[in-house]
Amino acid sequence: MSELDKQTYLSDGVKPQTQSQQPGVEREMEPEPVYELESHVGSGKLKGKVALITGGDSGIGKAVAIGYAKEGAHIAISYLDEHEDAEDTKQRVEQEGVTCTLHAGDIADEAFCFKVVEEVIEKHGKLNILVNNAARQEVKNSVVDISAEQFKHTFDVNFFAMVHFTKAAIPHLQAGDSLIYTTSINAYVGNKALIDYTSTKGAIVAFARSVAQELAEKGIRVNGVAPGPIWTPLIPATMPTDMQESFGVSSPLGRPGQPADLVEPYILLASEGSAYMTGQFIHVNGGTYISS
Fold first, then answer.
1. Measuring CA to CA, which residue among 164, 170, 172 is closest to residue 222?
2. pLDDT of the residue at 90
3. Which one-letter DSSP state was computed for residue 22?
């Protein structure tokens, strides 16, 4: 039995709870997400590289930041305004003997996205890995209930921010470097309660596969991960309690996923282990969706 399976709350589902605003705060969650496994001992797969992770203060981004640090990468974290979570993540990352910088601001602002990349180059001297991960969502019962403002805001944060970060990063990337995108199981199966969010995730898949073709001749790899139901601060901050009660428990593996479940795929896509992969998405969803 794995370390994750030994956590009984994973198979029993999550305790329904609410937070007042998204993307949510880790310290208010019960239980807190699992971000790392003791069994993960770094082997230098990313030694000396610099990784920028959007939404790296908590959730999947935090787990990836810690995992990359264990593999020897220096970390830059872009986040909105969850300063305590960001500081906690920075402290944990730097325990691995690497540096970590924090960059607070709204990624819906194109200028901020470019500013972050400039700051990373200034403070770290280079950029090798960009993990486009930050996202927002709002549950609505019908597409007719989604305002134009909500559609635009969701696309600004989930999709266009990734476009801006990608454009800002490309001039600094070299052969062997990686662009990595977080999409969602919803891009492949749809979600009637998250139509605007799901639409952005589908756009991300198409965008990444297209950019992968453009950058292949430069040796820059473009891949992504498609998570299923993962217990992150975004869930209690956006989902009603009735949706939380069934969150992930209907998957074949019988539990919601944890951020720690995503770490190894992100490490693979950032390392030489994926040297012959580009335009690909790894599905981590407990067997809920099995891709062809």
1. 170
2. 98
3. S
Q: What is the pLDDT of residues 12-33, one digit of tens each?
A: 556 777 767 777 677 777 778 8
H-run or E-run covering 249: none
**Beta carbons of 76 and 172 less than 8 angstroms apart:** no
Please give the backbone phi and psi of residue 282, each rounded to the nearest 5 degrees, phi first: -95, 130
Q: Is the pLDDT of residue 51 over 90?
A: yes
Count of CB atoms situated within 10 Å of the CB of 271: 20
Signed CA dihedral, 229, 235, 239, 241: sign only: positive
Residue from 197, 266, 276, 289 carrying the catalytic annotation: 197
Note the pLDDT tens digit of each residue in 152-174: 999 999 999 999 999 999 999 99
| pLDDT band at residue 231 using 50, 70 and 90 as cut-offs | confident
Side chain identity at 13, as an amino acid letter? G
137 three-class SS? coil
Query: How is domain 42-284 classified at the CATH fold level?
Result: Rossmann fold (3.40.50)
Q: Could you write out the three-class secondary structure of 231-246?
A: CCCHHHHHCCHHHHHC
The size of the chain, in residues, is 292
The candidate with the shortest Cα–Cα distance to 53, out of 22, 98, 3, is 98
Residue 197 falls in the annotated catalytic set = yes
